[in-house]
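Subject: two folds for Thursday's group meeting

Dear M.,

Sorry for the delay on this. The cluster queue was jammed most of the week, so I only got both jobs back this morning. I'm pasting them in the order they finished. Each block is the input sequence followed by the predicted structure tokens. Could you check whether the formatting survives your parser before we put anything on slides? The first protein is the one we discussed after the seminar.
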Amino acid sequence: MRIIVFLIILSLCANICLAQQKTYTNLPEEIQKLKELVNMQQKKIIELENKLNQQSAKTQPATATNIKVDEFEKRFSNLNLLKDLELNLGITGVMQATYNANSDSLSPKEDVMDASYSIDLTFLKKFEDYAEAFVHLEQGNGAGVEPHLKVFSNVNRDADDDNNVRATEVWYEHNFSPFGPPLTVMAGKLDATIIIDNNIYANDENTQFLARIFRNSPVIEFPDNSFGLRLFYNLKDKVEFTTLALNGNIDWQDTFDGMFFAAQINFKPNIFLHQGNYRLYGWYNGQPHTSWLDPTKNKESGYGFGLSFDQQVTDFLGLFCRYGWQNPKVYLNSNPDFSLKQSYSLGLQIKGSLWKRQDDILGLAFGQIFPSSDYKKMAGLSLNAKAENHLECYYSFKVNEHLCLTFDLQVIDNPYGLDAIGGDATIVVSGIRTHIDF
């Protein structure tokens, strides 16, 4: 920089010396030209300094602060992955007492009290408006009172006697509707019980009914969570089509042997100025079945159909009902004790806004389960095989934003079709459920 300035000044001095050798008649003009030349040179100097400063800033060595900022940006640039990530932690504890328990291992009319708990941790990652990924981790302990009851359908769907932390659901769902047809594809480890035969008022054991008959139809042979594919087509939010293919082997061996297939259509009309869901479904289970009346036929298949309706009637009242039927002539080889033919249930849910408890819920349901007639024929006249009747009533009291206490009462009439060795014709189960949600 100094060398450049020195050369410019030297050039100016030379011009002045040459001007002195000339005559003084043109001196004013020479002075004016000299001023213009100086101004022009000053502008060039300023422009040159600006360029040199910019070049110096680019080639300047990185400071420690700059290095730390760059490293931070590189290391935490993946924090964008946490955008639109939803985490939910749910803890559920159930304490139940039974009167007149009828398990074969108990003395007649014995009373039992037991507890269980479950922990659910879910991660839901949304990718703008076209896809999402989901992981459900689960752990629990205690079978509750269920081992002490001999029934067609038991009383605590939340009982999870498995201390191991396991991934019960892991799936990816892609929505093509933003750029194509209203089609959604889901693939991964799926839970069929929340895809088929779902219901707004009776499909969640953590906050709704505890009895298994009111969580899903007991005559659907749902496989355990396994690898599967679901296709979902939404026709203008008026009609929904769902198809499901699931591996029937929970050990993931022979993936395409003994598959479980199901299809469901859901009509969504507005009745009483409120949304309703009217689902019709059919299913097929390719796992080996055996004929009750001909045991040599041990590679049969199971199949069935059903419906699941729910309708909001008013701002505080909702109604639901279910019906299911399955092939009564066979039984699943992994469950040779009994088989069922059909089942139905119906019930209601009332919000606490009626008594100024906006977030409280009152639920009431009744259902019946009918065993297979071939199951009864196989044993001759030694079986009663009566219809098993279930009644459940619960009241969910919301303590605060994260805690709900539920008081639950269940009555089972004709348990196990009146064919249990011990117990009475009626079982009463009372309990309390604590659910914490973050």
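Second protein, same layout:
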Amino acid sequence: MRVSIDWQVCVGAGCCAAALPGTFTLVESAQGPRAILLRPAADDDLRAAAAACPTLAICLEDDAGGRYPQDLLEG
């Protein structure tokens, strides 16, 4: 599963880091805190962290091209 974090959307709430500590963390940027991925995790754990993001800044893409949570919102 590929993980991307849109820093234009991320507000640094830290919900991903709280949902999956040690996998996501916050770093300081010129725009304030932003999330980064530290290491891979199980797909279900990544989905939980992406779902916890209040701005849906985290996008997960599987090998078939499915995107979470974006596919849920579009479909």
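Two things I noticed about the second structure. The beta strands are 2-5, 24-29, 32-37, 58-61, 67-68. The longest helix spans residues 43-52.

Cheers,
T.
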